[in-house]
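Escalated from tier 1: iron/sulfur cluster holo job.
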Amino acid sequence: MSTNRAAPRTRWVFAGQLGPLFDDGGRMLIVEARSVFGRRPMHRAKAHLLLSALRHRAAALGDRVEYHRVERYADVVDGRDDLEVIDPTSWAARRFVRRRPIAILPSRGFVTAEDDFRRWADSRTGQRMLLEDFYRTVRRRTGILMRGDQPEGGRWNYDHDNRNPPPKHAARLGLPDPWWPEEDDIDAEVRTDLDRWEREGRVTLVGDDGPRRFAATPEEAQHALADFIQTRLNDFGPFEDAMLSGDWTMAHSQLSAPLNLGLLDPLDVVETVVAEYHAGRAPLSSVEGFARQILGWRDYVWHLYWYLGEGYPTARNALGAHTPLPRAFRELDPAAIESACLRETIDGMRRHGWAHHIQRLMVLGNWALQHGYDPVALNQWFVDMFVDGTPWVMPANVIGMSQHADGGVVATKPYVSGGAYIDRMSDYCAGCAFDPKVRLGEQACPFTAGYWAFLDRVEPRIRDNPRMAQPLAGLRRLADRAAVVDQERRRERW
Ligand SMILES: Cc1cc2nc3c(=O)[nH]c(=O)nc-3n(C[C@H](O)[C@H](O)[C@H](O)COP(=O)(O)OP(=O)(O)OC[C@H]3O[C@@H](n4cnc5c(N)ncnc54)[C@H](O)[C@@H]3O)c2cc1C
Ligand code: SF4
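Tier 2 regenerated the structure:
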């Protein structure tokens, strides 16, 4: 009988792999590399959450873990041949582990396996890779919200029921504050370390040092999920796209950070939420809307990150956008911003390192698109300034969906709108120095006028896109087009 058994390997886990899903027992390695925090300015809340999650995980693993605080990953892993990893979550990390004698296991933390997505995508020769088609394939495969081969309730999509504006004259949705974690000694130590690193010039932190609002442990993440189900799930669908200046969380789950840290299994999350529908405690429109975000969107952008390749973010700049990000964005400083929608969104980011989806897409993204912000710099800014920002989540969302810099690979048209959309979906305009209906003069809304100036600028690049035919026809009919374009070129107040 052979006695030549391979010694068990030590599993090195990264910041996106900190939950039970990534732990099969056995020895673990966690490396806290300070260089990760010093590469570019980072939101303080994000740096805090990452460090807190790493250190909490190490504390929970006890003597099963080797925990190192070093400058660079290489300081710990070079020269070792006893390590294994679950395939990490960025091109850079995958390159790093592949250059070393490290055993690599298939990635986890998503509902669809990478090979399955690739097969699905490759099978679509000549067809677009639509989220809707991918999502239906996943529903059929998993049986989630299915009755035989038909979607539960007879419809795949409840978006139509889920686009309500906020209730009229309401300052808030009227939901209790979400459950938030209580900080402990580990958070106190993180805070002290960040203060010291900042004093020593090792890191540049942006944004407020508020209490930690996002789950850093699997237990906290389960609390946040249970609280979402209890207090917000029913309102999630109807108010998914709504914005209120007095309500920074609305009915959103705030689960993206714990999901991206690997603290929750996304399939468990969806199954837990779907069970609420089957128990008669939550409406199908909300439950389907939520399942779509996770089974659909979250997985879809993960797979596109790999499928579209490492060069995707820089391969094209289809709308010729080269403007550097302004100081108000880089420093998250709302003080000089007069547009209420943008000011409130940047202010919320300053405080929490988070904004909800429509603020990201239709306020921040829309503004950046209209003003031709450099898409690669914007992509990086989103990664660094959001607690849930990761390299994999951003390209499809920012380069593709929000900025249309890929020329239409991810979205069929630019997500651009004037102030009328923001006015319909929020209460921002009522408290703003500008008027969403006005496009010329002192009160001209920067989003409304900016919309026309944007179309004017990119017209030659999008005129062949049939989905832009109507907006471009509107532009051609605009009697004061030249004056609006000139005004926006000179705009100083925004
Ligand atoms: C410009 C832009 C930037 C974004 N940046 C990030 C980011 O840094 N990190 C991130 O996780 N998501 C990002 N998203 C997607 C989405 O806006 C956030 O996941 C969501 O706002 C997080 O808040 P929540 O957990 O309350 O989400 P909910 O509204 O409660 O949605 C539930 C979950 O669905 C998932 N989800 C929904 N939409 C998407 C999507 N488009 N891509 C990926 N996951 C999705 C998230 O895991 C989220 O937690 C971005 C979207 C845009 C348009
Ligand atoms: S008026 Fe324009 S700038 Fe002001 S909040 Fe409304 S959309 Fe934003």
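Residues 284-307 form the longest helix (24 residues).
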